[in-house]
Automatic annotation (TrEMBL):
Residues in coiled coil: 166-208
Listed name of the protein: Sarcalumenin
UniProt entry tagged with the keyword Kinase: no
Keyword Translocase among UniProt keywords: no
Keyword tags: Coiled coil, Membrane, Transmembrane, Transmembrane helix
Top-rank lineage group of the source organism: Eukaryota
Organism: Magallana gigas
Membrane-spanning residues: 226-244, 283-302
InterPro entries: P-loop_NTPase
Length: 349
């Protein structure tokens, strides 16, 4: 496919903000370059290839912490390809060290290949190279795994003379496509789970708010009850006390008929006040006012309410639940179809 203009360091980080942590590795941004291909063949536009520096032994000094950069990129990648070059220093200690370190956490996504396999000589030469590489890898416990495979690959159009070497590069493409499909499916499954989780959280919040509103109503009722008792009982006590001790004054205020009626209903309580010596009348008034204060304080305490959602907030949450369940979640299949259409080459349409 054709390529667009290359972009250097800061432009690359601007295009891929998830690479921003690479700035912490001094010198890396000066050596970042991005090239964009317009090809859609083999879902190429859904793939980001990250080519890391080749490692060699000896006194070679890199302009940045290359190991740290490779390990960080390994944490980000969906697949890690390790290419062993038959004519280069494929088995250098520095390469094997970083490969082994990557394998500690990412062995399931690592793939090993003999690249430029057509330049390794005849079939016996290739087998000898493969054996040497496998022997070196098997010396490392983390790399000595069952079912070890190392396909031979090369770029066909670079082979001018033709080669009898079996090219397994198509398997690489299939592996990439399989990973793309799995990643897309995992992402869409995650979308569905997230929609369900959001809907559940919204429902829980609305249910909790309903429960809180019910508790607030009960709290207000308790507060009103204690408040009523805090006013009514002291009023009753004070009235009966005045009837029993201040009959002349009460008769002038209420009239004889009303006083007689109150005497009928409140007589027993009024007679009880008469049994208390006059010198204690001040204490009685203090008691009545103190009782009133205590009841009102209790009423205030038990009527405390918790914060609840406003009508606008409840409506907004309901709209969110409706949207994620009936709009976002239902787009799963169409999103999968749209995503795959991006990878279809024009000549396949």
């Amino acid at each position: 496919g054709s390529f667009g203009t290359a972009m250097q360091g800061n432009a690359t980080l601007h295009l891929y903000p998830h690479f921003e942590p690479l700035r912490q590795i001094e010198g890396v941004t000066d050596y970042l370059t991005t090239e964009i291909s317009t090809s859609k063949q083999k879902r190429f536009n859904l793939v980001k290839f990250i080519d890391t520096p080749g490692l060699v032994d000896g006194d070679m000094q890199y302009p940045f912490d290359v190991n740290r950069a490779i390990l960080w990129l390994g944490d980000l990648a969906d697949l890690i390809f390790v290419f062993f070059d038959p004519i280069g220093q494929a088995l250098c200690k520095r390469t094997l060290n970083i490969v082994e370190e990557l394998s500690n956490d990412h062995s399931e996504i690592m793939r090993f290949y003999l690249s430029k396999a057509d330049e390794a000589g005849d079939e016996s030469d290739r087998q000898r190279v493969l054996m040497q590489i496998v022997q070196e890898l098997c010396k490392r416990p983390n790399l000595n795994r069952t079912g070890f495979e190392m396909p031979t690959i090369y770029v066909p159009n670079m082979n001018q003379k033709g080669s009898s070497c079996v090219n397994q590069i198509e398997e690489v493409c299939q592996d990439i496509e399989k990973t793309i499909n799995q990643t897309i499916q995992n992402t869409l499954n995650s979308l569905e789970r997230d929609c369900d989780q959001i809907a559940t959280l919204v429902e829980e919040k609305l249910q909790k708010n309903m429960k809180t509103s019910s508790e607030n109503l009960q709290a207000r009722f308790r507060g009103a009850s204690f408040g009523l008792l805090g006013v009514f009982i002291p009023f009753l006590m004070l009235t009966t006390y005045l009837i029993s001790t201040q009959q002349k004054v009460m008769k002038d205020i209420l009239g004889e008929n009303i006083l007689d009626t109150l005497g009928i209903y409140l007589g027993p309580l009024a007679r009880g006040w008469k049994a208390i010596p006059v010198q204690y009348s001040t204490y009685i008034l203090y008691f009545i006012f103190g009782f009133t204060l205590i009841m009102l304080l209790i009423a205030r305490y038990v009527s405390r309410t918790k914060l609840t959602l406003s009508r606008k907030e409840k409506r907004h949450l309901s709209e969110i639940r409706e949207f994620v369940q009936n709009t976002v979640k239902k787009k799963k299949e169409s999103l999968y179809s749209d995503y795959l259409k991006q990878s279809v080459a024009d000549h396949d349409l």
